[in-house]
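Figure 2 data, in text form.
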Amino acid sequence: QRTGELAAAAVGASVASEQARAAAAAAARRLDGARAEHRRNAEQAAELAASLETLVREEEHVLADHRDSESALAQGSAQLAVAEERLTGLERAESEVAARREGAAAATRALEARARELAGLRKELEVRGATLEERRALLELRHESLGHELVAAREENVRAGERRLIHERDDRAFARLGEQVEQCSAGIDEAVASVVAERDRRGAATQRRLERLRSLESRRDALERVVAGLRDRRQRLEIEQTEARVRHETAVAALRRDLELSPAELGEAPLPHLGAEADAAARLQVVDAELHRLGPVNPLAREELAALEERNTFLDSQLEDVRAARRELGQVISSIDREIVEVFSAAYADVAHHFGELFTTLFPGGNGRLSLTAPDDLLSTGIEIDARPAGRNVRRLSLLSGGERSLVALAFLFAVFRSRPSPFYLMDEVEAALDEVNLRRFLDLVEEFRDEAQLIIVSHQKRTMEVADALYGVTMQPGGSSKVVSEKVGHRPVPATERTLEVQ
């Protein structure tokens, strides 16, 4: 326990020492940062002082330039006044002396030019004076801001000095703490050395005890193996004794059941008569074989037989019901098949008849018909479409163009419509692949079906929209939401110049 306490104390002292050293290093880093910051502040203050002196000199130069500009402006004003006086005298002389009018006019023009020059010079001086005044104001503002920055730099320098004193005080405290930590470390090292020596001594004693313990454990293992062998032998003997007792009890029970004798009475009972040449052992084997062939006797066999006979009767009745239901279902399927054949035959005949008529409408001069792949088996037959436009011998629909295939499909579709009418029909861009001629034929077909049902066609074709009774479209204004727009057209044709709505 003392060793553990000393080791824990040593670990705690080491941790405290590491923390103190880390704190000392952090304080040293902070002191170095403060010193660097103090140097930067001092350099910045020197730079601000130099900048202030430069600005003062620039301000003096600006004031001198301003004074020169003012003196030049005063001279120009005096010259302008003299020129104005001379102009007045010349005007009076012109009114008095008519002979010298041309010379006076020339002098007047010269004076006017000089006056304009002086006016331009005056305006330039005024602009330069305003510029210098503005620059002076800016320099005053700069001087004032530099003064504030210099004051702030001096205050920061004072704060940096205070922080430096605090850091120096912290350095002295950390130095004292380091000395104390070193003293504690020396004491801890001595304690650790003594603890290590005690640990080595006790480790040697523990090693000896461990060797003694291993030898005892090996001896114990050997004894346990011996005891386990004895225990297994005892268990085998107990099992054999139990089996012998069970066999004895079984034999006694069989003797009492079969011969109604006890073991004591068995020795006094007379032997059965087996004949002169019979062997008791052979007879016993024959009887055992017969018993083995008979198998175990089931006392509930009669009850089980009755239950199985009842179950058999129930299953026979259920099987007869299933057979009757199957016969009835076969009759229903046969009647449904006959009805399907009749309905399909009638529908196929009507569709084939109307397909031939509509094909000639869409393909003038052409020939189209429907045929069954298996006419004898209408329940599994397929339908083939034979389409032959005028002047062409086409054996496969894939050889037709896209528009021609669309017309063939429309002919079959409208043949179904006419054979089995519906209140309305919905078609989605069925005429997209049609050219102008084929589109006209499709629209003629739509006109033919107009009186039979309502047709709703989704389309982008303008000519399809022209034959519609009503147009519905979805539009969206810029920055708005989508809305449905409708227009009732009636039966009048819509000119191509009018606006049409495309259903999208």
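Caption note: Helices lie at 2-96, 101-258, 263-268, 280-294, 301-362, 402-419, 436-449, 462-466.
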